[in-house]
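Much of our argument rests on the idea that a fold can be written as discrete symbols. Part of our work consisted of pairing the sequence of a single chain with a tokenised description of its backbone. No coordinates are needed to read the tokens, only the vocabulary itself. The record that follows shows the chain in one-letter code together with its fold in token form.
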Amino acid sequence: MDTLIQTNAIDYVIIVIYFAAVIGIGLLARRQVSGSLDFFLSGRSLPAWVTGLAFVSANLGAVEIMGMSATGAQIGMPTVHYFWIGAVPAMLFLGIVMMPFYYGSKVRSVPEFMRLRFGTGAHLVNAISFALAQLLIAGINLYLLGSIVHALLGWPLWVALIVAAVIVLAYITFGGLSAAIYNEVLQFFVIVASLLPLSLLGLHKVGGWSGLKDKITEMAAANPGQIAPAAEQLHSWPGQALSGFGSPVLSVIGIVFGLGFVLSFGYWTTNFVEVQRAMASDSITSARKTPIIGAFPKMLVPFITILPGMLAAVLVPEIGQVKAGAEVAGGASGQGVTYNDSILYLMRDLLPNGLLGLAIAGLLAAFMAGMAANISAFNTVISVDLWQTYVAKDRDDQYYVTVGRVATLAATIIAIFTALIAGQFSNIMDYLQTLFGFFNAPLFATFIVGMFWKKLTPTAGWVGLVTGTLSAVCVWVLSLVGVVNLPGQGTAFVAASAGFVMDVIVSLLVSQVTKPKPAEELVGFVYSETPKSHFADPKLATMPWYSRPGPLAIIALVMVIVLNIAF
């Protein structure tokens, strides 16, 4: 069979060693699983540096690597907004403001927090929508994982999907969240080691940053109207190529509010996939530091994801032709080259054998990390939030671990089918931002109002969620029929903003005519009703200043502001 990437024995040896390590970690982690808290939250025993790296690695999956490199190849530097505006500020807010509530309330999941704050209505809406979102997003990771196996071995895509799914299934079923988290730490280092050579070799080949700028300028001049102007591709602001707005002012507003506030805070502060890693920490201070520690590597990830995409657009003939508007046969899926293939083609053209095997292992690591994160969060929500709460209460602990393992199997099988949906999108980021607009933006609205306003009622919680989600879906439908027509991520930004605003308005109105919870039931869930002593950590006083959550967050914020100014 024809394969996109030509590998040899040394590449396969590296890949086999990596897979053996992954399965081995799963088997070792199994020894630590003695109950449901161990399986779903690693017994709340992990140090901050482990959970911090896992926090980043869980997000460093298919979307981060294939999606960001695809968008980097397509529009260039404005893609960094997904990190410097669309991630780091929200991660710092999660660590400073929201993690004390999550960890201090001793909940096992974000939907469980919703149940204790708002009751069963909002809880059910959140749990079901979250579970559905995880199945769809796991499908993205699995589709791209299967594409790598297809490109490597030439297997039919459906065979590659099944093989990839079985490997992920094995280590989560063995060791639960501990297996996922320890593998994510390993995967973080493997991913960096595999992608950094692409950036360095690519920059060397193109003549450094100035050479890359010259090549992009030449390409834009040769394809006016088809490719974004060079000035838009080489500077992050005002980011019109990303937002789709013709006005620079509207573009900045769209990016800051739509991406930087609604989508970003909606994702990072309420997404249980990420929050679950912090919940596995050994103390409330470690839980707060988890996303803050994660912010430091997060702000540097563009240099190993977006930069290779920009390099692929000028170094790889096939990607350059796609950018110029041509249809090119081939690609990882075999159905034509798309921007999602940028990293694979750059690997093919730049890396020697051996380094190629490491790079392939890194990509496999990334996609497995992403899929494992989705599925480990899914099995917790199904087992704890739906099955234990509404179907089978008061069973012994081992029963719920078994339910979790069955949910893991079911999620893996369903993800094989949702992977085929992901395959219909030439740029995975378009698909993903649409999903976030549906599920995360309204949830963040309910969360943030409910956390700071004690009069938000249980009824308002679920009615606002449903209204916000339907509002975002309406904007998306309007874009499908041509009523709303925005290129780039503009439609996703508008949909998310509509979902957020409608959720807040409806929640406030419904709260005027329904009954709030008694104040004593809101301790640990609402800021004004929770004394500071509720979140106290005796260890904090003995820590040096530079390792405390507050100073760490300030350092990270200054660094990300500098990056925004520099680029």
User: Anything to note?
Assistant: Confidence is low (pLDDT under 50) at residues 38-43. The CA atoms of residues 11 and 228 lie 38 Å apart. DSSP finds 24 helices and no strands in the chain. The radius of gyration is 23 Å.
